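Reviewer 2 asked us to include a model.

Predict the structure of this chain.
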Amino acid sequence: MALCEPMLNQSVGAQLCIGGLLIVPMAGCGGTSSSNVSQVSCMSFSVSGACNDLSDVGSLVSSMCAAGPAPTGTGGVIADGTYVLSAVVGYDCGDAGGLPPQSQTIVISNGCVQGVARVAGQTISTTQSFTVSGNEITASVVCPPGQTGTQAPTFTATASSLTVFYPSPFDQVEVYSRH
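Predicted model (structure tokens):
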């Protein structure tokens, strides 16, 4: 698996790193709606050529640094809905300091997650399908197409938040508040 900087969206060979997550294409998932989500489909893309038509409704979040390895998530039920990045903690940041300020909005529905992020002056949209096993999430890219690679971070989900724990080499925790 190639390494990439968490939250800095970049291509690494044939791989794409978005939010520290290396993602791989696979068949899309369904498109049901929930009370907070209108028809999210892993296979529907924007007319503009972006991976989705989401607007980033979050504010820029500055990352914090903490000592030691990233903790491990405890699992839970990931509820469909809209989530906004509310905190980022990097572990063992060293002299590099934290990541640049960033914002993210994600919409989760029926095993699909569509996201839009602003970081380092760029706006990036993605669509991924995901599966959950215990406290691990495995995400696979649907858009942008043609990308390869996977990572299975752990997570903790509550009724009001989703926290994603990326282990080494990323050592990062992202907290999303449900809206």
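Residues 1-40 have pLDDT under 50 and may be disordered. The longest strand covers residues 122-133. We have added this to the supplementary material.
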